[in-house]
């Protein structure tokens, strides 16, 4: 009788688990059911999986009772480890694997032992591609029509990956994988990036158990805005070396770099941390599969390789004959490798967009070669460190059953440095393009912590060969056609094979689900999930399917008003009407229809060079209608062609709408998205401090860093307010004498002369970046007054924070102090009052008239 009852209890548990798994056949049980070592797979339809019914026996006392443990959830038997790698801002021609001249031996090795793919598509921009990659859904479907810093209040553009769009990290984790994310997180809304959270949109809140990386679009690799999980860390402190600037000429914009570079760089540190995590998981449970999402900052600006790698590239003399010759050499290499058709024609150099090499001055050539050698060193350095991570899988004996996906670029090569390149990308986002002669002052600093550098767009055009245009250009293959390599020794046997099927980053998630044997969930945390929108490309792993037609039939593209539609080999494109460095001109008011339409047959014209729209007007009309249908389906509307205006436009923030902020104790690390926004407005900072006997110095408050920002501090006891205007100029207000011991009220008041960001609503930038007058007071007495002829129009340095009582990462003025520069006076209170300009009815009327005049002129 007792045995019959026990069998019934076990049967009930098995049936409960079977229901949990969808069917008894789908369930994989190991060990003795109810024992601590038992494991099971689940159907995955509901995450997290509901607990099975208790299968033990409960009596009045433990001696007569029978314990029972629910089985631990594990992935299906044989599920591979997954290493998903994606680099940043790298076009088709960057790696040697696809004909480039920059050595990428790690990628070469994966290709030789696996497969090459020449038609994997991105969205043309960072955050959107990343959101699509980790969710398996189109970027507008998950709120990332643009980068997080441009978010607007529409479902397709709000930068929120909703709970109905569970990431691959969450799905794999709840099915028994160990999950991690290393590198760039550009998918947290700017207004949720502070230490007060919420952290639901951070990697650890989206299913990745471990995060080591930076939050935002890019980072100083020598001293990044770095987090472990949700805690900011500063591991580079103590690794500064003796690299410094020669301050002999205090009026110069920049000084030669001298000394030794720091011994810490994020590119290496990230690989070290990934290896540490892998070993920790392996040594804790060698049987647990891992999912490692590895997305380095390379090669997004700033390009920050070590000097060792710069020297290696410089010795190769890869770029001495200029960007046109480079392009031709890469094109020939691509044909030799067979990664593009042999009969493809290279389009002419765009002389109307980019100055031909032989028209440049010797000084410009010298600068541009320096720029590209640093970029190339960054590529090679990153590939090397990725190789160390892959070696870790080999050393642990896991490589045979590890699926490695190594995608080159989340979009085409960036041209956001403009035709001249720039010593600071922060300058680009403020509409400033420093001329060559000014940039030459930064020549020796290129690639070091004293530059936030980006190369000339001429190189970027070459690095997108055989295509044209760049990152941001969603209608051109140079912006969206990436490449990747995949290896999985246990499964993929067609070593060195080429796959040419059309694929998109949304196809990665369904591919991973198929090969792991894990189903897409129907519910996560009780929330009905949106369908996965991608198509698995696992079929391409088999040699028998090498030439099978693509199963991904239709795909839209849209980025800041430029758009395209792919449909079974056809590509409808809008003609490029804005270069990426042109972020502040009036936006196309009707980006859906006010376009020149181009049509291509990619089955016969691989690189989108032969426009056949005139021969197929009916096809153009048909595909325009198809785009509208796709746009409606995936939250693409309303289309918006603005660029810079969206960066400065209002969005949620912990300080949004507040005109007075009061701080009564020091704190650091408030990101720009939640910091007081003091651009294009009048404001007053009032600090209440107490100076001890012997005097004081240190930071009262600061926002930004070496390449743009402001600081309010005591220097040798004197009160100072400093505006750093893109490292090109510093405007300083300073008291004449050190503060005496005792309590003091310091005030900096700024009266702005412009109309503010409200003008941007009218496609007009006339109200931003204007002049203003600052006045510094000590205990109510004016000690300094000065007019700024111009102010920053759009943004401070975004990877630096708002700090009170000290300064993190880099300082506002290297000549005055070195972070953390703690305040040695007693901090009593800081009050910030903001008086934003309000447009009068007359202002609005003038701006509306200007819009009408501009529309007529266009």
UniProtKB/TrEMBL annotation:
Keywords, in A-Z order: Calcium, Hydrolase, Metal-binding, Signal
Signal peptide from the UniProt entry: 1-26
Record has Metal-binding as a keyword: yes
Matching InterPro entries: Alkaline_phosphatase_core_sf, Sulfatase, Sulfatase_CS, Sulfatase_N
Residue span(s) of domain Sulfatase N-terminal: 80-518
Family from the record: Belongs to the sulfatase family.
Name of this protein: Arylsulfatase
Native organism taxonomy: Bacteria, Pseudomonadati, Pseudomonadota, Betaproteobacteria, Candidatus Accumulibacter
